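Field reference: sequence -> structure
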Amino acid sequence: MAAISSLSFASLPHASEGRVWVVAARSYVSPAFSGVRFRAPNLSSRLSVRCAAAPNDVHVPPTVSETKLHFLKAYKRPIPSIYNTVLQELIVQQHLMRYKRTYQYDAVFALGFVTVYEQLMEGYPSNEDREAIFRAYIEALKEDPEQYRKDAQKLEEWARSQTADSLVDFPSREGEVESLMKNIAERAAGKGNFSYSRFFAIGLFRLLELANATDPTVLEKLCSALNIHKPSVDRDLDVYRNLLSKLVQAKELLKEYVDREKKKREERTESKANETVTKCIGEDQFVSQV
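Structure field:
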């Protein structure tokens, strides 16, 4: 089966853990550090233990393994390997994005992820299972799947009503989506938390696609209006197109495999039926001869 390329992202810096200090009233030799003696001030004859925990405002993110475990607990049914392999890779990548210190959810990011998910899960045997997997995936990242769907739909409807010119002219206009786009532009300019990602680039691509903005200069203008580095977007869109191409190839191979196995089962069933008929005819002939 065709291999599916993975998307690589920078590793996530983890928040530091709280430290613990132990102050003893009497001298004590630690069994773990032979020969090292700790002597406390003569303030009290009683043992005093003080713990300095991490500040309350420091959030320690879950590990990748914990996120994957939450996903598996939320959706316990088996997932065909062609889908599961890519899903597991995506959830690792999105975990790293999700728990960056500069991460802040936005609608373009949501549109990008929903676009990738729908492309990946196209042709999944059950629509109900496909939606259940989506919910389990987003909830494993401690986010709201309903918000992802709602924001993606909102941007899609907005983009369909735009032209190439109006799409990039959002800073001069008023509206709900225009306000969302302005907020992204401000944060990307350094006035708030913003973390560029490949899902964001794919969200931009989807906006252009729905607005039928095929001129390459439109993407450049949109990136400029949003204060996004266009070469990064170009690179990530190339990766996305390559991924889609390999997904198509892999799904074609899977379909061929399924059709081939189905044909084999039908042939085995037919052969077994023929054997049964032959056996029955033979028994009838034996009875008539008797």
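Note: The two ends are 58 Å apart (CA to CA).
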